[in-house]
Design a protein that fits this description.
- The structure is a homotrimer.
- Chain A is of the alpha+beta class.
- Chain A folds into two domains: 113 residues, 3-layer Sandwich (Rieske Iron-sulfur Protein), CATH 2.102.10; 208 residues, Naphthalene 1,2-dioxygenase Alpha Subunit, Chain A, domain 1 (Alpha-Beta Complex).
- Chain A contains six helices and 17 strands.
- In chain A, the strands form four sheets. In chain A, strands 11-17-16-15-14-13-12 form a seven-stranded antiparallel β-sheet. A four-stranded antiparallel β-sheet of chain A has the order 5-6-7-8, with no helix packed on it.
- In chain A, strand 6 and strand 7 form a beta hairpin.
- At the A-C interface, loops of A face helix 2 and helix 5 of C.
- The complex binds FE2/S2 (inorganic) cluster (3 copies).
- One FE2/S2 (inorganic) cluster binds next to loops of chain C.
Amino acid sequence: MFIKNAWYVAAWGNEIGRHLTQRWITGEPLVMFRTEAGEVAVLEDRCAHRRASLSKGNLVGDAVQCGYHGITFDCSGKCTHIPGQDKIPPAMQVRRYPVIEKWKWIWVWMGDPDKADESLLPEFQYNDMPGWLATGGCLKVDANYQLLTDNLLDLTHETYVHGKTIGNSAIVETPMEYRVEGNEVHVQRIMRNTPPPPLFKKVRGFTGNIDRWQVIRFQMPANVSIDARGYPAGIDDLEQGMRWFSINSITPIDERSSLYFWTITRCFALDDDNLTQMINDQILKTFLEDVEVLEAQQQLIETDTRANPDISIRADSGAISARRIVQRLAEADAVQAQPVEASVN
Amino acid sequence: MFIKNAWYVAAWGNEIGRHLTQRWITGEPLVMFRTEAGEVAVLEDRCAHRRASLSKGNLVGDAVQCGYHGITFDCSGKCTHIPGQDKIPPAMQVRRYPVIEKWKWIWVWMGDPDKADESLLPEFQYNDMPGWLATGGCLKVDANYQLLTDNLLDLTHETYVHGKTIGNSAIVETPMEYRVEGNEVHVQRIMRNTPPPPLFKKVRGFTGNIDRWQVIRFQMPANVSIDARGYPAGIDDLEQGMRWFSINSITPIDERSSLYFWTITRCFALDDDNLTQMINDQILKTFLEDVEVLEAQQQLIETDTRANPDISIRADSGAISARRIVQRLAEADAVQAQPVEASVN
Amino acid sequence: MFIKNAWYVAAWGNEIGRHLTQRWITGEPLVMFRTEAGEVAVLEDRCAHRRASLSKGNLVGDAVQCGYHGITFDCSGKCTHIPGQDKIPPAMQVRRYPVIEKWKWIWVWMGDPDKADESLLPEFQYNDMPGWLATGGCLKVDANYQLLTDNLLDLTHETYVHGKTIGNSAIVETPMEYRVEGNEVHVQRIMRNTPPPPLFKKVRGFTGNIDRWQVIRFQMPANVSIDARGYPAGIDDLEQGMRWFSINSITPIDERSSLYFWTITRCFALDDDNLTQMINDQILKTFLEDVEVLEAQQQLIETDTRANPDISIRADSGAISARRIVQRLAEADAVQAQPVEASVN
Ligand code: FES
Ligand code: FES
Ligand code: FES
């Protein structure tokens, strides 16, 4: 179940250049490249002729030449040349996907191109903002994308999964507040006078307790940002504390595997390259702990034959709300994708 | 097709300790551990909350703490703690499986716990009896468990598969006797004045012919013991001969893979460690010959599209009887597992 | 979808000897061997008893002894021995497949043995003819067999896939002629005064332009020969030019994988072993380029959910005709294989 009328991250901007890159999103194969002018173009990676993989062909100017029989498609998906014949059948075209490059990532619209709407991008401006520095990566995870958004919306798991880096018992002991606003879900925990988790100590050298904020925001289809702050307890001063955003966008490859695009973007010690590298290493290690849990969970869900298996707790409220939003929007997309029945009488 | 109301070997006793061990039986994931008192506990290895793998969590006292959000289950499967809330929903529990540790193995009851009945254990006392010494192991086999019991119930295959260790032409030339008693099948061959197979020569140094006994006993669901004896021909004297039991319990992982627990337990030369090692090596080699045959057979059965493929011979009688017993009991279990229909009128 | 009443290449003749060889054709497992008289015999590779793999057993004289319980089948598939019993049930037999060894290859008839008809062999005599020398091999390809015959029937792909060996732009620029004759398809291109492709230069040292012929012939079920000729432009003289046949037979393993048997057989410089080796190397490299394209195409077809996906062009005419022939014959086979309904009244 996927929302089709939505933007998904297909790649980091610097992955896409004057070459052909294949990637699968919501079960569809895409071929991506930059035009000579530097714009990103995204087409279906199945030749309209005999379904060869266009990404194994050649980029010729701003067009893709299929590597099998040489049929050529421009960056709008229109066929511009068929070897050995002049007439081009109108159906000879491949699907073009709307694309936006923004905040360091390439965003692809998987639904009706006429509905593509830049205002539906999640607000991830901190990935690329003066005074902020982002470090991050992309992980392939063999689990449904909603298991990843569940994970990010309930940070009590940090206590149990990530005790070596960002978790400690303060999180689970602090009640969560949450609210739904339109297609967004907000979850927050403010932990007063609490010991800093190991990574916070390393990053900012806290010696005593801190006030710690986690402000989580879900934006459809599968974007979760976390505004994380830590200050010496009682002293609300950024100079003595830290603040970063953990910015996460999950792209479904198909129903059982996902790409996990992530950054940590911070507004302090921007010139400290060692710190940047250390944060990247520690967060990557942290996410790999999640991957192990999530891939085992995926396997146990797939093999489960019970009728109504999950029992929820209070901490699930945010994740449940986000799933409701996704289900509602995905069902609306599916209805619109149905052919309209001719009305009789 | 599995008998659920039955005991299956889940592990050797010495595999289970103060740590969490995962194993799959009849398609269900189990987590196993020893309590502080040394008892073995077996729970479903799917957290009732979001189906994380409990075996990736922590053993805390006699309880399992899920490694994802920290929900804790005691060794009866009851939830004892939910982080961040006091109220525990009654449905928050995981299935507990009855378990018996006996004769060096851990036996798990996969059906209705109220029906768990120790008297249904197979009689495998020779695995752990004064005056006897057992050596053995466990093999994973990519074949249905009944292909393994078929194999053990028709030892004519020793002639063709195991000519280097325990087989020779005497077996296939000697008629088999068999009888069914309740849920047991007994098959036996007594070979008089026959050349010893290679392994018997190595073990006991026979120079001339022997009288050789094979007394096979099938006990449901998938247990086969073989009382094997060899004496110098005409001399029924253990001091000059050998006797051992080959004890085998097949545990279905699912419909197409199995765990094969096995021992050879003997009542002679108990102090001879080299002999113990040699027997273990030779029998393991022998069983790996079976594994190759059985895995190929499994593949050919799965790809077969013919309607009624198997043609039976006289030597199959024991295996066919055992399959009838399994089918009858498995169907009875399936009927009992159906929800009772409300009678109308 | 397979034509069953047809000959498929199962092996090179020199692969089959006094040992048992397994191979799968149209989803069926075969065991092959030579009798003491040197004839090739082909049986179903599933023992009629318990479906063990006969190819893991032993060849005893002209019979196959199953490696599991020793039941023996002669080279007609008739059971000749059951260990431990004298009576042989009439159903205890395995299917025999008609076989012809011709033109260096072993041909097996996968349909009704009574319909086996040597005149339905493709005319591949150039593989084994005085004055001609064949070099070749066999590749496993993870793609449906018809993707391979499509490939061979539209050589415009040489321009794009094989520019380093046998392709150049002349092919795609020259119109193709084609005609259907019964169950055969003929496609040809005659390219006048055209630059030779790289491999032709290497093989024959052409310095100027050539006249190049490609005469393609499809014979059911999946045989394609290409009569390829090149002469100095305007000079129709074999002494100064080259001619070879590319002979190809595709054997479906199942619906998604195939064996690709191929030769290049030439009528010039027969004693030049270096040339033979060079041609073999270059053609193998060329076919491995096809394999990469075809395996990606197979994956994209399997994952495609669109209703009517392929758009055809003029160059597809030959391949489309060949597919129509295969479909017609396969459907006729399927109808004949149905049990006849009793006519009522
Ligand atoms: S498949 Fe792309 S041109 Fe033929
Ligand atoms: S899945 Fe076990 S506590 Fe959440
Ligand atoms: S399976 Fe071949 S003889 Fe039994």
